[in-house]
Specification:
Strand order of the largest sheet of chain A: 5-10-2-1-13-15-16-14
Helix content of chain A: 25-40%
CATH superfamily of chain A: Acetylglutamate kinase-like
Number of domains of chain A: 1
Largest sheet of chain A: 8 strands, mixed
Oligomer: homodimer
Chain lengths: ~270, ~270
């Protein structure tokens, strides 16, 4: 029976695109429905530096770090994620015979989000409110559009930009975008690729890999991990809440069949 | 009866996007099928300058000028046209209620092209052959894909990047891309917007506007005009050859209903 598999591959994390594309070709040829979601934070940082508008980051009181996205940063972000990562990921997939189709949340209103009216930023120990930030939290995914693309034989490749109620482009977290898409499709698997073998109890010791996390252990694990991994675990929880059967956090940096290995149980698996 | 209207709007020419988007909303609400094709050469030049990789141009022996697109320039071009122009044109259309959907020729192999194996460049009066140029000439348009997008209620917004037989991204001329798409769809109208009222017998005198060009006069007109306008007239001819009923070269820089005015006969009209 056809499985629906949503795969998030990295921006910042040094994930290798070519072995992933090879595995996507294999899964698609087996008849699986695949959606790819990518990041692009590293490219956005590099482009920001190159054009003289370097990235700025916000640390929230609850310990998350996010990009401060004013209008000019949103342009840089769109050029990096839609223009570079998405375009050339589609190219790489087409080169291995996958009929990839790039889009972002603006296109056909794929991902509708609520813009954060103000974002709390911790600066020198004080909380400051930022009001010109084009970031948001996804509310709904246009499942009919994805189904329509599947009907046309296309493999959607999604950039982490959503559309607000006022139709502004918003920077959204790619792990959580992948989680929302997986939930909307009631996916069999959500795979969150990173550059480590999964969640490590004693980072960076690979022997401390946690192979399985039960739903009621997730909150404990969120407090165990740091930085980007916090958002992945949060995404895993949101996906399970949304009806996804299985979430796997796995190593996307291996040259050796990263998706096949993850599906075979290498990584950290979450299920209800 | 539903008309199919393909509209090329400029990159370089200072075309105003907002009045065009308003008119697109009007046409779509009347039930017309609309495809937009955009350029982006000016943005690509600006981005090339900003990242320290300025655009280089090739003059062909037959008098056409085109962008020299090595691999790095292709990246810059993709960031400018897919990342910036396409993304924010889709945003502008969504803001006026048009369910726009951005794509380029890589996506679902919308536009297949043959890469130019070598490009002749006139340099200091001598002809040089350039072999690392990622430019091409479109052979086929995936009409089924466009029809599929129409079925989903989407308005395609197409960036001028095609896919080669080897699945490489290729920079293609946007006017001729629009002509090929219009031909593939057997469009009723192809509209090529520019920043002048149409073809001017005595450029830049607006009183010298040529209101109508018969098919057998096109070759004469090609020799009359210069620069970008040559490609537009060539595109007009290709479109008529491909079965498009009418081609209009019109002013896209007016604030006052540019598409409505063009359809009402303001501009230079070509038909067989």
């Amino acid at each position: 029976m056809t499985k629906t598999i949503v795969i998030k591959l990295g921006g910042a994390e040094g994930v290798q695109f070519d072995p992933i594309c090879q595995d996507v070709a294999e899964l698609v040829s087996q008849g699986e429905r695949v959606v790819l979601v990518h990041g692009g934070s590293n490219e956005a940082n590099l482009l920001g530096d190159a054009v003289g508008y370097p990235a700025k980051f916000i640390s929230s009181p609850s310990g998350y770090t996010s990009r401060y996205t004013d209008a000019k940063t949103m342009e840089v972000f769109a050029m990096a994620v839609n223009g570079k990562i998405n375009t050339f990921l589609v190219q790489s997939l087409q080169k291995v015979g996958v009929n990839a189709f790039g889009l972002c949340g603006l296109d056909g209103r794929l991902m509708q989000a609520t813009r954060k009216e103000s974002v709390k930023s911790i600066e020198n120990g004080k909380i400051r409110l930022i009001r010109d930030d084009f970031t948001g939290k996804i509310d709904t995914v246009n499942t009919a559009l994805l189904e329509g693309l599947f009907q046309l034989g296309l493999v959607p490749v999604v950039a982490p930009i959503a559309i607000s109620q006022q139709s502004d482009a918003l920077n959204v977290d790619a792990d959580r975008a992948a989680a929302m898409i997986a939930g909307a499709l009631q996916a069999d698997v959500l795979m969150l690729l990173t550059a480590v073998p999964g969640i490590l109890r004693n980072f960076p010791d690979p022997a401390s890999l946690i192979a399985k996390v039960a739903y009621n252990e997730i909150d404990t694990v969120i407090n165990l991990v740091e930085g980007r991994m916090k958002k992945k675990v949060l995404g895993a929880k949101e996906a399970l809440d949304g009806g996804v059967k299985q979430v796997i956090i796995a190593d996307g940096s291996t040259q050796n069949q990263p998706l096949v290995q993850a599906l075979a149980g290498h990584g950290t698996m979450f299920c209800k």
